[in-house]
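User: Fold this, then the next.

Assistant: Folding the first:
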Amino acid sequence: MSISISERLKARIRQLGMSVAEVARAAGVNRTFVYDILRGKSLTPNIEKLTRVAAVALVSPEWLITGKGSLEGETPITEDYDNEFVAIQSVTARPSMGGGALIDVEPSRGRDYHFRRAWIRDRLRASPSMLRVMAVDGDSMTPTLLSGDTVLVDLNQRNPQPPGVFVLHDGMGLVAKRLEYIPMSDPPRLRINSDNTRYSSYECLAEEINIIGRVRWCGREM
């Protein structure tokens, strides 16, 4: 499917989180000039003005016109943004909610899971390449997580501020637990909690554990 200049500019503005007014003001062009492009009314816009708009959008004029020029960062989604799905790779490790499992967050050759790209980018504000799907075992995080649940882990989020559920390596193995910093601790200490009240919380130095990532989503079969 051919992508128009209108669709490319619209996708780029959306990706940068800018308004039409902000783009027009920064480019020194009339707001109508930008709107006419976005609405498909201007198929061959003034190249000098378009170059200024492209500079604000951090792309080359060639990219706006043909899609083959240069741009800074990731290429924006230009087709069916709300309904496009992206594959997230699964890993062989199964974080335990009890004893530990061996650490392995490299993608396996197993099943890919598909999530709506718009949800990942706009809601999670995450990079698909830094997400992993894992299955969890054990009962220490019930009722939040049940044994066999599938979780989506963001490898970019390794700081338990705010507190939350994380996959971590605690020196014994890979576990899924609720983490929080202990206020005023020096050196910094973490409290590792289980949602199942049958399990006790414990503390450790922050440097003693390796946080793999924050759990952002979970799902289960009924």
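Now the next one, as you asked:
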Amino acid sequence: MKLNLFLVFTICSIMVSMAQTKTVSEANSLSIAVTESNLAVVTQNETTENADKVKVYPTITEDIVYYGLVDENINFTITVYDVYGKKQDVEVYKGTIDINQLDAGIYIIQFSSKHYTVTKNVVRK
């Protein structure tokens, strides 16, 4: 239990740090590697050119997250993970992600294409 709390605290600290230090020329993001047991390993990495290709808003919400893609011609796979790295089942529509059925907490949305991967963070109230 202590390890789980430590991991949650560490991930939350990274997210807060990223939000506070984000600049126009450099943006931090989280990288997610999915394991066979449907759990993911979350690590921090640097992205400089792809962070602005996906916009997510609002970042704090109760039900719907909207997203916008700079290049509409690229097909993305959208996956939502909780802070423990577990994949969450959500409804994804063109331009929206319904997180209404999820518990309150921090979630990581991963947009993956053949060309690049972008991760964004949202909070469900």
